Amino acid sequence: MDRLAEATSGVAEIGLMARASGMGVLAQRLSQLSLLSQSELGTLQKLEKRKEHEADALIAGDSLGVQAPLRFLLSGWACRQRVMPDGRRQIFGFLIPGDVLGTPSGPLTSAFASVVALTAVVTADIPLSDDKHPNNASSLYSKLIAAAEHETEKLLYDHIVRLGRMNGLERMAHLLLELRRRLSRVGLVNGQSFPMPLRQESLGDALGMSTVHVNRTMQQLRLKKLIQCSGREVTVLDPVRLTALADGTQI
Amino acid sequence: MDRLAEATSGVAEIGLMARASGMGVLAQRLSQLSLLSQSELGTLQKLEKRKEHEADALIAGDSLGVQAPLRFLLSGWACRQRVMPDGRRQIFGFLIPGDVLGTPSGPLTSAFASVVALTAVVTADIPLSDDKHPNNASSLYSKLIAAAEHETEKLLYDHIVRLGRMNGLERMAHLLLELRRRLSRVGLVNGQSFPMPLRQESLGDALGMSTVHVNRTMQQLRLKKLIQCSGREVTVLDPVRLTALADGTQI
DNA sequence: CGGGGGTTTGACGAACGTCAATCGGGGTGG
DNA sequence: CCACCCCGATTGACGTTCGTCAAACCCCCG
Fold first, then answer.
1. What is the pTM of this model?
2. Which of residues 219-248 of B touch strand C (CB under 7 A)?
């Protein structure tokens, strides 16, 4: 097992590793982000430079220097977060394999938030300029960055609605469905189950509630037979009712 | 009193109209957004096309057509919002004179949120291409849009922290300080007072709390001698303690 | 066999929502 | 000019949601 495979062990455990790393999470996600051509994808794959980070490592944010490259998440989970002076933490969103962590400029550069690894992760950097490919990356860049920012913005708006206008049960249902949809795009959903290597503390910091309340909320979803949790994996038992709960369209 | 002045009556009432419309809110804000040169400012001012809208009008959003121009708010207040299927409303942020309402493309195009007028407002459109100025607007465009998106993104992140990790009192204090800072940049703060023509219902829809709780929260801020409200105007009595409250840096 | 990090549980209180009534000011018609 | 009206602000009473503290539990690992 090479070092990359080791870092994706959370995925390997549930038998999805071959699928996730087979055609390449990066290519899969890139093609969805902006409909890149095959040759464009090839170009980016060659430029890719991998790095490994352990849990809790800062993997993007203000303090990473000015010449930050375009950085993707290849495996593992991370989050965009901010810590208040008194220690309270707010998570703005979770990052899963295939997501853009940061761009050389623009909103995702994020002097507003840091990106922190929640598990062991592997990232891929695509440098802004390369001696062998001085020009042709620039057009790809614009497309990729614009698409990634668009996606991030949508998720931010959704997150605000969750925090502002939903109760605990609805927030949790809504977040689980968002994660399922995004994981599904990169082939990480197996049937009705998907990996979720998050501690209840992280869920709480994202959803604006205490760890204890996260626990009781998950418990309620289980009691209602909407989901099922085993280990670090979530199974959606009743997608229809779960969606109705999350959308405020009670059945 | 011409029609434009009538629409800014909320400002005129408190004796700030001359200041706000004198040198031009638009120019004032544009120069802050991206450090435009005098000639660039002149170009944009000439392209500007004004429109008036009454309260509750939809002034930007998905349903306004594809060829949407770059649109600014000249006077009055608006908000970016989304309404859930069951009627619950979430306000993502308030828009004040000088703010960018929407852009021809990119995150601010907002299929994610609608922009609705909260008072009578006047907007200024800067068309994407103009027969007399076919080219030179394009560079300005990029600068303006990038700056506006950057600003919007920062406000979104701040709003998430408010909703997720602050209690009612802190949220209100934090929002009031944000509004004061932004109004100050366009010359709409007079001493320690600024106009705030918002109903408590709107404040509640922004801060994720009920109208009744907004009322009691404002009352607490008044009891603590942090602010003072008269009519549609807010006076910050103790900026230091108010800031400490909003930052979680209790004194 | 401990040990440690994360989860679960209970008890209690604080924050917040809901309902309904009342108040207050600005506008309108008589 | 005054009575009325209407919308939004305010108040009270009560129930729910959620946070906090502290203890117990569980599981994986050394």
1. 0.86
2. 231
